[in-house]
Amino acid sequence: ILQMLYVRGVLCTNWLVVYQDVCAVRGSSVVIFCTYHYPEMVVNKNLTVEKVMWSQGRKQFFDGPFIIDSNNRTHTGTKFEYVGNKVHNCSLQIHQVEQRDSGEYAFRFETNNGGKWTGSNGAKVNISELIISMTTPKVHEPIKEGDCVNLTCMNNCSSAVMWFRNGKPLQEESSTLYLCDISFQDSGNYSCSPKHYNRPLSEVIRVNLIYFAFYICHNHAAYFCVLRKKTTAPKSDTEENTQVTICFKLFVTNYLLPAIGY
């Protein structure tokens, strides 16, 4: 006798497991969302779930070995974590995913009347690489102050990403970070991760700026000078000078030095 069970707005008369396929970036953690349903009563006996299991790979769907087994306390690894229950939630979390974690996963449960059910279709898990790249105005030439640099963070799961400079999050969430009219403040180590993941997962790209520098020796002192872009607005529309020279005194000597710059 198969009784009818009302679960979360669904009229359920069958044994059923429902999965959601997932895509995850290598190095992140992901949850396979899963629900399962079963008759509330069979042959006048109330059903309860006594054992839950998860397997990886189609050949292991029914007989294992299982990566999660609620009745086997030897499954103490930190890679896989059952975040469901013995009612209707069968979700599985996979920590620090790698390429070898891609494939199909299946949930299996057993009830107090000896009933066993496996969601044989399985949940598909795809692992994507996070690739970060940089585009500069001229290939194989150094970045200069005032240039425009584009950083791109790509993966096959989502276009929404988080950007980091020197390990600290930035506000930009698109897959391309535009650094236009670049200045010294933009220098640093850039990396990215999927949105809402609060630490970098990609490789690091270093953004370095070069400056025209020279030494000046005048009278009894030596100076180190750097040519920098002006940060203040021009005084008039005809003003074209956008650079300023900043000099630092290095040392003073008793000897008279020639005025030489290079």
From TrEMBL:
Gene3D superfamilies: Immunoglobulins (2.60.40.10). It comes from the Eukaryota. InterPro entries: Ig-like_dom, Ig-like_dom_sf, Ig-like_fold, Ig_CD22, Ig_sub, Ig_sub2. Residues 128-208 form the Ig-like domain. PROSITE patterns: IG_LIKE (PS50835). PANTHER family: B-CELL RECEPTOR CD22-RELATED, VASCULAR CELL ADHESION MOLECULE 1. Predominantly monomer of isoform CD22-beta. Also found as heterodimer of isoform CD22-beta and a shorter isoform. Interacts with PTPN6/SHP-1, LYN, SYK, PIK3R1/PIK3R2 and PLCG1 upon phosphorylation. Interacts with GRB2, INPP5D and SHC1 upon phosphorylation. May form a complex with INPP5D/SHIP, GRB2 and SHC1. Most highly expressed siglec (sialic acid-binding immunoglobulin-like lectin) on B-cells that plays a role in various aspects of B-cell biology including differentiation, antigen presentation, and trafficking to bone marrow. Binds to alpha 2,6-linked sialic acid residues of surface molecules such as CD22 itself, CD45 and IgM in a cis configuration. Can also bind to ligands on other cells as an adhesion molecule in a trans configuration. This is B-cell receptor CD22. It comes from Salmo trutta (Brown trout).
